[in-house]
Amino acid sequence: MLVWRSVLSVLLLWAATAQGQTLFLGSVAMDVPAAMVRRLTPLTEYLSRKTGLDVQFRASPNLGSAVNDLGGNVTQIAYLTPVAYLEAREKYGVEPLVSPLTHGQSTFTLVIAVRADSPYQKVTDLRGRRFAFGDPKALLQPAVVVGSGIRLEEFAAYDYLKHYDNIAKAVLNRDFDAGILKDTVFEEFEARGLRRLYTSPPLPGYVFAVNSTVPAATVAKLKAAFLELKATDPAHKAILRELDAGYDGFVTVTDRDYEVIRRLIAPFRKP
């Protein structure tokens, strides 16, 4: 019965895409739903124009939901963090499609940030202080923090604030002494009063992945459309910068590119 349901799902998806019906694009929640709709809609409109498919955005409330939506074919494409991609790959066999270029690089960094006027000059100064993380399932964040030279139990307290914007604002408001941010989010808030305390080594970038049932011809159309997006084109630049202010374009990726992330998060995964 399960085999027939799987076959039926593939046939229905093939028929829908062949007729130009809707493909849903999901995403990890990096901001409140309304902001995510604003950020992803220009991209879905572009993909619809370039592929001839009706691509629409469908928001997810958190990392786990974005993974399960993609795996369960609620969404057929999703914008995922490296950790979310690895979970979706392991549980559902999703396929990586493309990764964004950040300032021309296929990698990104995570930044431990403090207020510009704080007395902390090195990571070990945060012992006994309050620290802000994002999603509890974003295992790369604690992996980077521990790799910077401080154990989680050395903080007086730490909490999970869901989105990077929330972390930045909480540090600026002195609700937390420090927090971890994606590089481009730190750049956005640096002028508002944040200072960089630590920067991770370069990490494989975020990834757009597809459900394994998406037909090969559709995958090829989507990949080609992504790869045509270049910040050198003013119209394309507006689409890219709405998604992330540091994005310049896209590059193809494979599962092997994320082996370094697998190794980094392995000690933080529950048995």
What is the CATH top level name of the largest domain?
Alpha Beta
Average pLDDT reading: 92
Rg from Cα: 19 Å
β-strand amount: 15-25%
- The CATH H-level superfamily of the largest domain is Periplasmic binding protein-like II
CATH topology name of the largest domain, in short, is: D-Maltodextrin-Binding Protein, domain 2
Q: Give the overall shape, derived from the CA principal axes.
A: globular
Q: Which stretches are poorly predicted, pLDDT < 50 over at least 5 residues?
A: 1-19
**What's the total count of β strands?**
13
Helical stretch tally? 10
Spell out the helices and strands N to C.
Answer: HEHEHEHEEEEHEHEHEEEHHEH
Number of domains: 2
Question: What level of helicity do the residues show?
Answer: 40-55%
Strand order in the sheet with the most strands: 2-1-3-12-4-13
Largest sheet: 6 strands, mixed
Assembly classification: single chain
Describe this structure in words.
- The longest helix has 19 residues, at 33-51.
- The model is unreliable at 1-19 (pLDDT under 50).
- The protein starts with a helix and ends in a 6-residue tail after the last helix.
- β7 (130-133), α5 and β8 form a beta-alpha-beta unit.
- The protein contains 10 helices and 13 strands.
- The chain folds into 2 domains: 2-106 and 204-268, D-Maltodextrin-Binding Protein, domain 2 (3-Layer(aba) Sandwich); 110-200, 3-Layer(aba) Sandwich (D-Maltodextrin-Binding Protein, domain 2).
- By secondary structure, it is of the alpha/beta class.
- The strands form 3 sheets. It has a 6-stranded mixed β-sheet with strand order 2-1-3-12-4-13, sandwiched between helices. It has a 5-stranded mixed β-sheet with strand order 8-7-9-6-10, sandwiched between helices. A two-stranded antiparallel sheet has the order 5-11.
- It has helices spanning 2-18, 33-51, 63-71, 82-92, 140-147, 164-172, 183-190, 216-228, 234-243, 259-265, and strands spanning 22-27, 54-57, 77-80, 95-102, 107-108, 110-115, 130-133, 157-160, 178-182, 194-199, 203-204, 207-210, 247-252.
